[in-house]
Structures are given as C-alpha cells and as structure tokens.
Amino acid sequence: MRKMDSADLSVLKTLADWQEDKLSLWLATVVETFGSSPRPRGAMLAVRGDGLFVGSVSGGCIEEDIASRARSGVLPSASCEILSYGVTAEEARRFGLPCGGSMRLVVEPVREACWVGEILCRIQGRRLAKRTLHLDSSRVFVGEPGLGEETNFDGRILTTVHGPTRRLLVIGAGQISSYLARMASALDYEVTICEPREEMRKTWEVPGTLLSAEMPDEAVLALKADSSTAIVALTHDPKLDDMALLEALKSDAFYVGALGSRASSERRRERLALFDLTPSQIGMLHGPVGLPIGSRTPPEIAISILAHLISVRNGKAGCQTKPEEKEICS
Predict the structure, then answer these.
(1) What DSSP string runs through 108-177?
(2) What domains sit in the chain, N to C, each tagged with a CATH number?
(3) pTM of the full predicted structure?
C-alpha cells in the first residue's frame, strides 16, 4: 500500500485552501507508468485556473504542460480526462521523462469537494482513507480501504489509498540514531527519539525530530503505534532496549528492530520469552536490525536499517476486503 508522502499531503491541504477562491481547480493523479518513471502511481498534482500548481507528477515539464492547459481553459470543467505523456521518443524528450518512460494521468475538476476535508480528517486521526472516483460522473466516495488495497485504475474507476504519515520511534540518541533520524526524515518519517539518559540528550542536535525523556516502555505506549509506525532500539543497553521491545512487540507497528549481533539477539529473544510475549510476537523482532549488507560504520548501519524498513513496507500484502463506503459531496 502506497502511503501518503509530504508532497501529496501538501496537495490535499492546498486544495482545501484553494476552494475558498473563485478559480477553477483540477486534480491530476498518476494512474499508470511504463518503463522508467520519476513518480509512482497515485502521485498527485493540484492546479488552478491561473496556472498555479502544487505537487509533482514528473518533476517538471508535465506539470508545466498541465498548468498551461489550465491557463488556456482547455482542461475539462465538468468531466474527467485522461492524459498520456511520453508515448513516443519525441514526447519523452519533450517532457523530460527517462528513456522509455511514459505515464497516464487522470485529470478531474474539483468543485465542491467535501471529500478533501474528509480525507484530511482521517489522516489527522491516523486512519486510512480510500478515495474512489467514478470518471463518468466525477463523483467521489470515501471509505476504509481493504487490507493491502492500493492505487488502482480500470479505465472507469480510480481508487487511491491515503494514509497517515509514517512514524519512526528510535530508542537511544547515539551516533547511529543521528544518521538514521536524518535519513528517515528525508523519506517523510516523523521521527521521535526516546532518550532517558540526560547526558545523551544534551548531545542530540538533529533538527525536525522530537526528543523525549520518557522511559522506553512509556514512550512506546504513549506513541500508540499503528501500522504506519516503526520502532528501532539502538542503545545497545538491554535494560533500555528490552523495555521498549516488551511493549513494541505487542503493538501494531509494522517494524520492530534492535541493534546487536546474532548471538546477543538470540539472548535477547530468550529474555523476552520470560515475559508475557507469545512466540509469534517475539518472531516479529528484527534482530540483528537492518539488512545484511556488511555495514560497519554508523551511517552504513543507518542505511541498512532504513533499507530494511523500505523493504518490509513495500513487501507487505494481504487479502482485500470491501468495507462500506460513503459518498462525500458529489
């Protein structure tokens, strides 16, 4: 499931703000990509009648082309339109797409779109939202997505899934944590550092992160970890790391990991088995944390951890269900 990044969240927030103006509004969504493509399916661009736009679907030229169409008044005002780019080599060069890359977008007029506020409300409440657009009528429905459901387009109906910002709780304010926090922030994670040791908190200098002095188990409980949350213990102190893991492994976090060698990780599992954790819960622990890429230095270890987060997140799958939907202001 593709979760919302900061660019897409900005698109929806801007759409909500722009609705107070009198200018026409459109939303463009990437629905298909072929070959190399700079943006994934589900990426969004909001544009208004004067050509001002926010968001990204290609990184440059396609945005300018859609903005030019808006200024020229050729975008649809009452129905949806499908635009294709990069089908020929000439178009790929013109629009700056990578060699062999092409994409299709659905462009929809945004009128009294109460669905924007509904999705933003769900995201703020850390809930998933599924948006279903019927191209023939331009009607939008908002509901809960099924497990594993993601962006889908069958030519008539476009479904996109939007979720809360991903969060990363790191136990320990050491050097590895510093590199990991910076890298994770670049991938739109909200990063919280739990560091009960005062002397370690004094050395923390990573901007844009939340530094907590709570004990690790209290920090995990306060976070109310959901399926968009990762928890990584990096103090290398069993007294602190294990406190976090005892609560983290009972949570809905999609990733729980702890720093340590294979031998120390096995000893940690043995200790955890003495408490109220089931074998399946203990089996969720990623220890040693990160992908085995031969990392040795703090930045290399941070890369291996973040790469593992990406791998686990992108490989998650499940059966789809079809919960009830409701129409939000057609």
Answers:
(1) EE-SS-HHHHHHHHHHHTT--EEEEEETTTTEEEEEPPPTT---EE-SSEEEEEE-PPPEEEEE--SHHH
(2) 6-124 (no CATH), 167-314 (3.40.50.720)
(3) 0.68
